[in-house]
TrEMBL record:
It comes from Yoonia litorea. One of its GO terms (molecular function) is alanine racemase activity. This is Alanine racemase. Residues 221-343 form the Alanine racemase C-terminal domain. It holds the Pfam family Ala_racemase_C. Catalyzes the interconversion of L-alanine and D-alanine. May also act on other amino acids.
Length: 345
């Protein structure tokens, strides 16, 4: 085996969905955009569908095809980017529910697909997607007369429970939607953890399903083992890797393992993380290259056949912290070259 082995535990995904669902008294959807946060949207959606999940969210219509093909006609597949120019055929044929983001999108939808389901996305301060308060005031009556499936908004700071943006956005959302008789949704993973006033009728967790922060109690979902290609002795004073960036301060053993920035092990991790042999940390030394890493295994008593980058000793979020990023980015960059082993459900 010459590529890394990525193990994806769908039972853990399902367990995480169940735990998040149990925190609310409302419905719980599943966000499977970006190929299920890099873990395989079809497999993830299938496992969750078996568990009873009937509402899924993707970012763009192109992502919906594989999910509709896998799950058949039953589940609702909602699209955050709404009904963009060129989306009409896919929205109709795949029976998607676009979250309408603007007056333009609303017009397009009602003109091209009258009677086809849709939702509405409102902007409550994040300034990314959705209608703003004045736009919504202008078209709410027309839109609501068509009985949208959902009215939703998204929190910008839900991973910081004490951030004043959270109650501000909650108040904006209430101001824009109180009194309407359409199901409402505000919370993603972080919003679920903020408490019941954020839950409304439907929550939309993504990262929590896949074992990432801010859901600290999540079960880990992925493990990543990288095979050792060769091991060499390096004398004190010798250098390792591109740019001579690491120099041995003692006689060392260096393992070269298969995996690099082309596999999502971002270059920022150079000299900043470690791989594990069982419970023993082995520092990544020198620069991450496209296909290879160099690891200091001097302190091991045996020659490892593989080393673990993500596993029991080091979570996705630990790795993200080393890389000065977030778990979301580590997960969604996990490479296509790995041998992927998906088990469970
Ligand atoms: C990505 C996304 C989610 C899921 O967010 P997580 O933080 O991964 O739970 C929910 N809603 C919207 C609008 C999103 O873009």
């Amino acid at each position: 085996m010459s590529t890394g082995r990525l193990i994806i535990d769908l039972d853990a995904v399902v367990a995480n969905w169940r735990s998040l669902d149990a925190m609310t008294n409302c419905k719980t959807a599943a966000v499977v955009k970006a190929n299920g946060y890099g873990l395989g949207a079809a497999n993830v959606a299938k496992a969750l569908f078996k568990e009873g999940v009937r509402q899924f969210f993707v970012a763009v219509v192109e992502e919906a095809e594989v999910i509709r093909a896998e799950l058949g006609p039953k589940p609702e597949i909602n699209v955050f980017s709404g009904h963009m120019k060129g989306d009409t055929d896919a929205v109709r044929e795949l029976r998607l529910t676009p979250m309408i983001n603007s007056v333009d999108q609303l017009t397009r939808h009602l003109e091209t697909l009258p009677d086809h389901p849709f939702g509405v996305q409102l902007d409550t301060g994040m300034n990314r997607l959705g209608m703003e308060i004045n736009e919504w005031a202008a078209v709410a009556e027309v839109a609501l007369a068509q009985r949208p499936k959902l009215v939703m908004s998204h929190l910008a700071c839900a991973d910081e429970p004490d951030h004043p943006m959270n109650p501000y956005q909650l108040a904006q959302f209430r101001k824009m939607t109180d009194g309407i008789s359409v199901p409402r949704s505000l919370a993603a993973t972080g919003g679920i953890l903020l408490g019941p006033e954020y839950h409304f009728d439907l929550t939309r967790p993504g990262i929590g399903l896949y074992g990432g922060l801010p859901y600290a109690e999540a079960q880990p979902v992925v493990e990543l083992d990288l095979p050792v290609v060769q091991i060499r002795d390096v004398a004190e004073g010798e250098v390792v890797g591109y740019g001579n960036s690491w120099q041995a301060s003692r006689p060392s053993r260096i393992a070269t393992v298969s995996g690099g920035y082309a596999d999502g092990i971002i270059r920022m991790l150079s000299d900043r993380t470690r791989l594990y042999h069982g419970e023993t940390p082995c520092p990544l030394v020198g620069r991450v290259s496209m296909d290879l890493l160099t690891i200091d295994v001097t302190d091991l008593t045996e020659e490892p056949a593989k080393l673990t980058l993500i596993g029991p000793q080091q979570s996705v979020d630990d790795l993200a912290a080393d890389a000065r990023t977030i778990g979301y980015e580590i997960l969604t960059q996990l490479g296509a070259r790995y041998q992927r082993k998906t088990f469970g459900k």
